[in-house]
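Researcher: Next entry in the queue.
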Amino acid sequence: MRTLLLLAVGVVAVSLSGPLMAAAVVPPLAIAFWRNALGTAAIAPAAVTRQRGELRSLTGRRLGLVLASGAVLAVHFATWVTSLTLTSVASATAIVCLQLAWVVCWQLLRGERFGVKVIAGLALAFAGVLVVSGVDLTLSTRAVAGDGLALIGGMAAAAYTVIGSRARQSASTTTYTFVCYGSCAVLLALACLVAGQRLGGYPAGQWALLLLITATAQLLGHSVFNHLLATTGPLLVSLALLLEVPGAALLAAVIVHQKPPVTALAVLAVMVAGMALVVAGRRTSRAVPAVEAPVDGGVGELDVGATSAPLKGQQRPARVAAGPGGLRHTLRS
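Model: Structure for this entry, 333 residues:
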């Protein structure tokens, strides 16, 4: 019962991300900046008090990998949050959740082999993107542009998981998250300045919304799913993460009154089914890539060799492995 309750909390937390950001009247790049800046501030006390020595020793290639993770994470948030202003929450969330599919494509390019389920799942998922974009084209070219940004956001999230997996092999969860979120926030602040998107002067209600976005998707969702990895099977967690797509669509209907065409919803269901096939197929694969914990807006099969802690101080390095034990996060979106 407790596990089911935690799964429900985790799914609702990550599903709230898209609808809440779509409801905000804050500029999209500013939303991306503040959720990372506030997330960094939330874990700063643990990082500077418990991991001070590790932070000082984070140099050279190790630091470079973490900063690279922060850079692609900034691209992920910049494109995905902006896509929410152009297309529907349902479409943007489903397309950005193809993160796992891009990771598998990367593995295929490296010569790794997968079973029929994985290939069929990829075909369904990517065919769904084409159909959704076609449906959106009948609505407006603006919606298609949003789909394109969400697609880039998913690719960036995949790059984040792959690069982050290497960085996490020699860094604790707290250190990695603190530096990664912090560097991501710096890059997004620069992007705001270049794009002329203001970082302040919002009404009190918008600040409250930014805090809610950070507390739910950025912190709560990540923490809950990291905890569940230690107590449940990776397949259960992966399939639960797939519920973010219908969850975001339902919440968007309530919060921002978005109701995508029935055709689009049917295609999104096919995309989710395709990703479920990829998740199930990966269970029998022999490939052993190491990839990162969930990122907001991301879906994948997760497993832990040494379980990563949920955004709090932990002395040992966190290693997230995949393959026979599971693949891959989100987000995030």
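Model: Confidence is low (pLDDT under 50) at residues 286-294, 297-333.
Researcher: Noted, moving on.
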